[in-house]
Amino acid sequence: MSRKVNMEKLLINGRNLIAAEALCNEIGNAKKRILDDKLVPRLEEFAEKEGLSLDSDTVCSKRFSGFYFEPSSWNEKYNIGFEFQQQNYTNLIYGIHLTDADEPSTSEKEQEELHQLFSNTSKKNKSKWWPWWAAFEYNNWTSDIFINIYKNPKAMAKLIINKTRVILKKIGNC
Fold it and tell me: 132 CB contacts (<8 Å, ≥6 apart)?
């Protein structure tokens, strides 16, 4: 018998189905707690060292949740965002995220470097709120990714921090 058939037979029992449903309803909360307890503190530590503010919104059931770094000199007009475009921690993108509808004022050289860094951003997929962006290499965060974050939060923090540093180096502190 396949694993799926065995699982279905196990769940058919009324008490098992109720227990499975209760567990299922808590998965999002557990993932949020892993982010808030394991990953976000490392990102906060980095932000503090670099003089950045960090805004994190890690609600599983919400679209557009994520992590946003901002140098104070950017005056809350834009930030470096890592944002899940869909619920349940899926479709993670990163790049320059606008907090109001105006594009950041960047030099021609900075724009060229940003276009090289985010080569997938064209007029076709450029959005009002994300003038420069790319898909994060782990763009759908499955349970395996959350287990890895729980066991070794430094690894995912390092990926996010390194991408943030590259962007800061390219664009400077406008």
Answer: 95, 96, 114, 115, 117, 118, 121
